[in-house]
Design goal:
Strand content: under 5%
Number of strands: 0
Order of helices and strands: HHHHHHHHHH
Helix content: over 70%
Length: about 260
């Protein structure tokens, strides 16, 4: 058997008082909201009136067509989906930038520090001077010169490769140092002094190398001469061969 309890009058009055309190609070909240909006409207009204007056004074009212404004608004409303499709990637990109910003900051700082080190070591100054050097090179050669350089670039590189061998570079260095040391003591040697120097094995070895170089140059010139155009001192190829054999024999003896 269910027993129903009937609320007393005091309980009913308390419940009604709570409901009235909630209603009063809601009305007070709405009144405060309306008052804030009214204050904001009162503050913005003078600003809006000033902005409108400034806009009207700066714009030519005669050139402003209301139909064009309505047409523009109609176009924007009709293409709202297209504008939204354009704006959506920008939002995604903005979110990506926000996520990458904490990661990019250390990278940018490291890059700035590295660039500062390169600047202090003179890389940028060297690059600026290199531009001037490149400009001088470009302006000093014609198109035909560049074409010839391209045709002979393999031969030039092979020659440079051979010249950069350790023994060749050592010989050039020793020659330069000797010339620098003897530059202040250069005198016109007599025949006797030259004959005395020929007793030195190093002098004879250097003379043999010089004769070999001259022989190579002569062979190159002979290969470039037209057939029948070269006349030897002896008048026949045999004399030339004999002379070459004598020079070769003298070089071999000098080498010994």
């Amino acid at each position: 058997m269910t027993v129903t309890t009937t609320p007393t009058v005091e309980e009913r009055l308390d419940r009604m008082a709570e409901q009235l309190q909630e209603i009063t609070n809601e009305i007070r909240h709405q009144r405060e909201t309306r008052e804030r909006w009214k204050e904001l409207l009162d503050d913005l009204t003078p600003l809006a009136e000033h902005a409108m007056s400034s806009t009207i004074s700066k714009l030519d009212v005669d050139s402003l067509d209301v139909d064009d404004l309505f047409s523009l608004a109609h176009t924007l409303g009709r293409n709202a989906s297209v504008l939204e499709a354009w704006i959506s990637p920008l939002r995604s990109m903005s979110a990506l930038v926000d996520e990458l910003a904490p990661l990019a900051t250390p990278a940018v700082a490291s890059l700035n520090a590295r660039l500062q080190q390169l600047d202090e070591r003179g890389y940028f100054a060297f690059a600026r001077r290199s531009v001037d050097v490149l400009d001088n090179v470009v302006t000093s050669f014609s198109e035909e010169d560049v074409k010839l350089l391209g045709d002979n670039i393999v031969l030039i590189l092979q020659t440079v490769k051979q010249m950069t061998q350790p023994e060749i570079m050592g010989m050039l260095r020793r020659t330069v140092l000797t010339m620098q040391q003897e530059e202040s003591r250069v005198t016109t040697p007599s025949i006797r002094d030259l004959m005395r120097q020929l007793r030195d094995p190093l002098v004879r070895r250097g003379l043999a190398r010089a004769l070999l170089a001259l022989r190579s140059m002569g062979a190159e010139a002979g290969s470039e001469a037209p057939p029948g155009g070269a006349v030897t001192r002896g008048g026949s190829p045999g004399n030339e061969a004999s002379t070459g054999g004598e020079a070769s024999g003298g070089q071999e003896r000098a080498g010994r």
